[in-house]
Amino acid sequence: MISVTTSASEQLKQLIEKQGDPNTALRVFVSPGGCSGFQYGMALDNTLQEGDQVFEQDGIKLVVDEYSIEYLDGAEIDYVDGLMGAGFTVYNPNAISTCGCGHSFQTADHAGQAQKCH
To answer: 43-76 in b/e burial notation, b at 16+ Cβ within 10 A?
Structure first.
């Protein structure tokens, strides 16, 4: 399961409302890459794919594909507004290390293939 903080939920509700489609969900995924081996990705999406898992919290739908759920189980999505800018971030209990940019990670079982951060 994936959870969303109150701050992230408020921001997501605004973004989804702008889409004008009540079926819009936040798709959260993991892909190989980043300087630690895996990188996070997020996108607004209104289409479900075979194998997707759907979570709902505070009226927000979160969609995770079957590949990514292994790496994101128990993760929390937050919205942070700080000196370095504002944006969504993932707190992932499965990550044993992350890179300085905070967008890539490594798990105990899967190192992935490290690449240069963008």
So the answer is: eebeeeeeebbebebeebbbbbbeebbebbeebe
> What's the total number of domains in the chain?
1
What is the CATH classification number for the domain harbouring 51?
Answer: 2.60.300.12
- Residue 69's domain comprises 3-107
- pTM of the entire predicted model: 0.77
In a domain, 51, yes or no: yes
**Residue ranges of the chain whose pLDDT lies below 50:** 101-102, 104-106, 111-118
- What local confidence, expressed as pLDDT, does residue 114 receive? 41
